Amino acid sequence: MTHNTEWEAVIGLEVHCQLRTNTKIFSGASTTYGAAPNTQADAVTLGLPGVLPVLNGTALQMAIKFGLSVDAEVAERCVFARKHYFYPDLPKGYQISQYELPIVGNGHLDIELGDGSVKRIGITRAHMEEDAGKSMHEGFVGTSGIDLNRAGTPLIEIVSEPDIRTAAEAVAYLKKLHQLVVYLGICDGNMQEGSFRCDANVSVRRRGTEKFGTRTETKNVNSFRYVEKAIEYEIERQIEVIEAGGTIVQETRLFDPGTGETRSMRTKEDANDYRYFPDPDLLPVVVTQDDIARVRATMPELPEAKRNRFMEQFGLPKYDATVLTGEQALADYYEVVVKASGADPKTCSNWVTTDLLGALNKLGKDIESSPVSAEQLAGLIARIVDSTISGKIAKDVFEAMLAGEGDADAIIQAKGLVQITDESAIVKVIDEVMAANPKQLADYRGGKDKLFGFFVGQVMRVSGGKANPDAVNRLLKDKLAG
Ligand code: ADP
Ligand code: MG
C-alpha cells in the first residue's frame, strides 16, 4: 500500500453468527438449511396477526456460552426490541433484536499477528436477534421471489470495538471468532451458507491523529478472503477521496467479488431511523447466576487452552499444537491416537498432521469422514513402535488403509509385510548381495565409502523392503569391513 506511512485505518467488525438450534428463535419452525422455499415459514415466521413469539431457550444458552468464552459480562436482564425497517423479506415490518440491553456486554478476544505478537480486540457487545428471509432474483423475470425459511433463524450479532488497524488483523480476528463459535458448538460455521457473515466498518485517519474519520460499512462479506479484499479496497478508496479534497460519506456499501471493489448501496440509517422500542410481546429475559453456572459447566476446553495443554502434556512444538487444535474433532482424533498407540506424541503428531491431513486434503474429506479412524491409525503406529514393520512400509500400509483394505494388522498379514528382524536372515541377504556385487565390494573396501548407500539399497530391495533398517545398517558395516 502506497499511503501506508501517512494513513492509518480504523476497523470495527459486526459478525452475524447463526446459532445452531433445531428450531427458530421465536417458534418451532425448523432451521435446516436448503429446504424448498417457504416450507419452514410458520405463522410466527410470517408475522401473521395474533401470533406470539416464544424465546428458544437453547438459543439463549448459546448466547450466554459465547459471552462466557470472551470473558464478557452476561446481562442478568436483557430486553428484546423491535427494529423497524421496510424490506420485502421482513414480513412483520420489524426485526426482533436487542438494543439498549443486550445479553452479552463488554468482552475481548486475543488475536495473534504475523510477527507472533498478541493483540487484544475489544468486543463491545453481542445481542440476540432473528435473521431475515431472502429475496431471490435468479429465475424470476420482472419480479422477485421471497423465501422466508431463513427468517427467524437465531443469530447473535457480535460487535467489535474499533480496535482493528489492518485487513490482516481483521481476518485474524474473524478466523479466531469463527474457530471459537464452532468449538463452542453454537454455530456450524458454514460461510457459504451464510451461517457466519461479516459487516466491515472502515475509516481512515492521518497517523498520529486521535479523532476517527467517517466510516463506511461494507455489508455481508461471506469469506475471509473477501473481507480482506473489501477492507483493503475501502482503505485505498477513502484515502484517495480525502487526498483529492473530497469527504467520506457515512454509507452502507456492497462488496463485488467479481471486481474486488465496494460500491455504495444506501446512505447509512441512524439508530433513530429504526424507531427501536421494547417488544411488548416478549418479557425481559432474566438470567440468574445459577443459569450462568449451568452454562459454564457445559463449556468445552477452548482452542487456546487446548493448544497450551498439547504443548505441555505432549511436548509438541507450537506449530503442531496449533494445527492439531484447529478443530475440536481433529484434537480429539489426535488424543485417541496417542493414547491407543502408546507411541511418542511427536511421532503421532507427524502421522496426523502430515500423512492423515495430507490424504484427507487430497480426498476432499474432513476429519469426521476420515476413512481411517483414530483407532486404526493408532493400530498402525503401534506396529512401528513394536518393530513389526518399518516406518517406510507403514506408509504403504497407510495407503491400503485409506483404500479401505482394513486394519493395519490385517493388511500386514495379507501382504506379508512383517519386518525381518531375525539377524541371521538379514546376514543371509547381505552375503547374497556382496557375492552379487564383487566390483562394488572391492571399491568400497578400497575407500569408496559412498557405496555404503548402494549396499543398503540392494539389501532392502532383495528383502522386499522388509529388512529392519537399523539392523541392516549395523550388520552391513560389520560385513563390508570384512
Ligand atoms: P451501528 O449500529 O450504526 O452499525 P455501532 O456504533 O454499533 O454502529 O458501530 C458499529 C461498528 O462500527 C462497531 O464494530 C464499531 O467498532 C465500528 N466503528 C464505529 N466507529 C467507527 C469508525 N469511525 N471507524 C471504523 N469503525 C467504526
Ligand atoms: Mg450495526
Summary keywords:
single chain, 482 residues, alpha+beta, Arc Repressor Mutant, subunit A, eight-stranded mixed β-sheet, 16 helices, 40% helix, binds adenosine-5'-diphosphate, binds magnesium ion
Outline the secondary-structure elements.
Elements: E1 7-18, H1 43-46, H2 57-69, E2 77-78, E3 80-84, E4 94-98, E5 107-112, E6 118-130, E7 134-136, E8 145-147, E9 154-160, H3 167-183, E10 196-206, E11 216-221, H4 224-243, E12 251-256, E13 261-267, E14 277-278, E15 285-286, H5 289-296, H6 303-314, H7 318-324, H8 328-341, H9 345-363, H10 374-385, H11 391-402, H12 408-414, H13 423-436, H14 438-445, H15 451-462, H16 469-481
Helix pairs in contact: 2-5, 3-4, 6-7, 8-9, 8-10, 10-11, 13-15, 13-16, 15-16
The chain binds adenosine-5'-diphosphate and magnesium ion (MG).
- Annotation, overall tally of beta strands: 15
Bound molecules: adenosine-5'-diphosphate, magnesium ion
Q: What is the SS-derived class? A: alpha+beta
The number of domains is 3
- The percent range for helix content is 25-40%
Our measurement of the CA-to-CA distance between the termini, rounded to an integer number of angstroms, reads 68 Å
Q: What value does the average pLDDT take?
A: 94
Strand-residue proportion: 15-25%
Number of helices: 16
Describe this structure in words.
The chain is an alpha+beta fold and 482 residues long. The chain has 3 domains: 3-294, no CATH class; 303-415, no CATH class; 423-481, Arc Repressor Mutant, subunit A (Orthogonal Bundle). The protein is 40% helix and 19% strand. It contains 16 helices and 15 strands. An 8-stranded mixed sheet has the order 5-6-9-1-10-11-12-13. Strand 12 and strand 13 form a beta hairpin. Helix 6 crosses helix 7, helix 10 packs antiparallel against helix 11 and helix 13 packs across helix 16. The mean pLDDT is 94.
